[in-house]
Amino acid sequence: MHQIVAAIDIGGTNTVIGIVDKEGNILSRASIPTTDYPNPKDLVEVVSKKILDLIAFCQLPTAGFVLAGVGIGAPNGNYFSGTIEFAPNLKWKGVIPLAKYFSDTLNVKAVLTNDANAAALGEMYFGGARGMKDFIFVTLGTGLGSGIVVDGKMVYGHDGFAGELGHIIVMQHGRQCGCGRKGCLEQYCSASGIVKTYFEILRSAGSESPKLIDSEKVDAKYIFEKAMGGDENAFYAFNYTGEVLGLALANSVAYTSPEAIFLFGGLAQAGELLFNPTVISFEKNLLNIYRDKIKILPSALPENDAPILGAASLIWNELAQHS
After folding, report:
1. Which of 59, 65, 144, 227 has the fewest C-beta atoms under 10 angstroms from its C-beta?
2. Cα R_g (the chain), whole angstroms
3. Whether 259 and 165 share a structural domain
4. Sequence-ordered list of residues with C-beta below 8 angstroms from that of 61, at least 6 positions apart, any chain
5. 177 with 309, same domain?
6. Eight-state DSSP code of residue 210
């Protein structure tokens, strides 16, 4: 019998499910709308059935698969308790014991953490951090998520919520953040943050009135295309984003002295346009004992597979520790 795991990534819009082996091969996958299930127990029931269907679909003719466990990546996921706690982009309110729901339904071990931590483990198991024991993983999506690995282990802190780089304050009295505070890093270094920066630059430059632009069309990809086309305002938006990100990453190095920092997500797809100013700012702001030692690298995880590989890595890691 071949051991496989079920990987679940719960997003505000969709929940993605995959069946993954130890080598990181995604044997089958499916997706359902998260928003269709205001009751989390209903989602667990549907996803559990999907998992069994996916396993049946990918059975080998000569050898069967046995489900070894379930890994779950979710917003505001607490590794210690297996709960989703007050996730702002989900319909579910309060504290949801999701890992227990899946464990009870499928009769296997279920482990849960936040989606960025899961992706960091995916980088360690199946991506560019293979062989590394100390690194930081940063997701630059609509917000900014992160996972910190020290001595080969994910840093969870005493309560399960360590490593929230997106919510370190980089601008006192700065932009309003969804967390209720002002000036958080994700308000400046994310797909939504760069849009705010771009419009601020347009307003201050006065060369092109923001009122003439259809704000609905402006996203990170739009700004990237404008920058590649020679638009100085768009180029400066990336430059400013990189300056802020590099400073924040330089500060984070003082805590864990990582071997590398991996950037993942839509904004990281801008390549050198983001990486160049980030690295320059990073090296400029590093304490001299850390200079020229730490690489800032693009994630080696495929964008579309990362949520599944991350959740799979979470449970494979757990099973390896308790085998």
Report:
1. 59
2. 20
3. yes
4. none
5. no
6. G
Distance, CA of 15 to CA of 197 (rounded, Å): 31
From residue 239, give the alpha-carbon distance in Å to each of 242, 244, 272, 279, 315: 5, 9, 10, 11, 38
Measured between alpha carbons, how far is 171 from 66 in angstroms, rounded to an integer?
Answer: 50
Q: Residue type for 216, please?
A: E
Question: Same structural domain for residues 81 and 203?
Answer: no
Indicate whether 31 and 50 sit together in one domain: yes
Whether 6 and 27 map to the same domain: the answer is yes
At 104, list the tokens. 């009870």
| pLDDT in 10s for each residue of the chain, 323 residues | 689 999 999 998 999 999 999 999 999 999 999 999 999 999 999 999 999 999 988 765 445 788 999 999 998 999 999 999 988 778 898 999 999 999 999 999 999 999 999 999 999 999 999 999 999 999 999 899 999 999 999 999 999 889 999 999 999 999 999 889 999 999 999 999 999 999 999 988 775 555 567 677 899 999 999 999 999 999 999 999 999 999 999 999 999 999 999 999 999 999 999 999 999 999 999 999 999 999 999 999 998 899 999 999 999 999 988 76
Q: Is there a single domain that holds both residue 116 and residue 149?
A: no
The full DSSP string for 273-316 is: HHHHHHHHHHHHHS-GGGTTT-EEEE--S-TTTHHHHHHHHHHH
* Cα torsion angle, 223, 224, 227, 228, sign: negative
77 and 147 assigned to the same domain: no
Range of the domain at 313: 2-124+304-321
Domain count, the chain: 2
317 shares a domain with 293: no
CA distance 11 to 29: 15
Distance from first CA to last CA of the chain, Å, rounded? 17
For 194-226, letters b (16+ CB in 10 Å) and e give bbebbbebbeeeeeeeeeeeeeeebbbeebbeb
Q: What is the CATH number of the domain that holds 57?
A: 3.30.420.40
Residue pair 24/316 in contact by the 8 Å Cβ criterion: no
